[in-house]
Amino acid sequence: xxxxxxxxxxxxxxxxxxxxxxSPTPIQAEAFSVxxxxxxxxxxxxxxxxxxFAYMLPVLRNLKYxxxxxxxxxxxxxxxxxxxxxxxxxxxLSKYINNRILGVYGGTNINTQKQxxxxxxDIIVATPGRLYDLAxxxxxxxxxxxxLVIDEVDVMLDLGFRHQLMNIFDILPERRQNIMFxxxxxxxxxxxxxxxxxxxxxxxxxxxxxxxxxxxxxRYDVPNFYTKVNLLEHLLQDEDEFSRVLIxxxxxxxxxxxxxxxxxxxxxQTCVIHSNKTQNYRLRSIEQxxxxxxxxxxxxxIMARGLDIDDVTHVINFDTPDYPENYMHRxxxxxxxxxxxxxxxxxxxxxxxxxxxxxxxxxxxxETLKIPDDxxxxxxxxxxxxxxxxxxxxxxxxxxxDAPGPAFHEKKDKNKKENLGGSYRRxxxxxxxxxxxxxxxxxxxxxxxxx
Length: 451
Ligand code: AMP
Known about the structure:
The chain is α/β, with parallel strands linked by helices. It has 18 helices and 14 strands.
């Protein structure tokens, strides 16, 4: 199929020419007429398959020029990085179209965004939280939204955005087209669809869980963190081969730890992204990696989801993800747009079960390589790898119910007395049941000066 077979228009054809795309990708070919028809659509496609253009081509094809201020297309994505990326893609396609596109996301000044919204927009790309805040502030009017795109629905739900999405559905016009894209069809995605959408057309180009064919997968059994570092160092020494490498780790602390190691081993070649880094730092890291300034990017799963970075030569799974779907997303960052990529998996003894789940999901066994002889095997363990010393019942240790309360003993009688002051007056008062003096003889004298 060629782009000519799709019913595009001249501005779009020109933009595609400039981008140098030769033919639509399978998801683009399949999605075009369904999305253009205005029906609700669920697309199952991983990043790298050209899914952004799969929904944007028909949406832009049908978006008429308008001067109205209220946006007509709303695109929701789970992370700020994706907002930036999707806006970028739409701008490329809109090179010859006169339309207004705005990306909004949290963590930045809402007032600046309010001003931009107030200038009038056609397409808004947003993370759910910030979108809702803007809508509630009434600066952003959603009553003209005709098409709602939710991209990376599965990540959206993984991140706990279901409630936010429902709030947004509530304030959108009922008559609208819903377009959803997800890399995997999880139960959560299925529930969301059956709860909120009427009979959407499903399109999918790869069965969820099927690895892209142009990714070569390899794995190593590695005993521990430090040996993983040694093996990684060994692999990365080949700078020509490993020229753009995405390294995944499960959590932030590990990302920082590995970044520190790599920064020592390969100074000024590494960048890192995880959710504790500032927005600017994250965007700069991605840019440095994308532009080839740095060849290594250490990332956590959530941060890297949906990121589209060209020509990633290798994806290294520094750890084996607990959820096999994460492995699929990770390796999907390489082997993109018909290019051969390599995915390498490191697994410790503890991670073997997770590795098995990955293989079960794909129904293949990954080719296992031996750790090269010149990689030294470390016996040193990091905190998380050391055996957890669990304390069993210890009769000498006091149990909670035996814990003493605050120190307490009965006071001696003499110590029970309270010092009330003015003992003479009280004694007299007790004796005579009324004050000894009826007035204060000195009252006038004392207050004379004040009057
Ligand atoms: P996506 O799956 O939307 O993240 O897109 C993956 C990459 O493929 C992006 O960099 C797009 O610019 C690129 N792309 C999209 N459509 C095509 C196409 N028809 N031919 C070649 N590259 C494409």
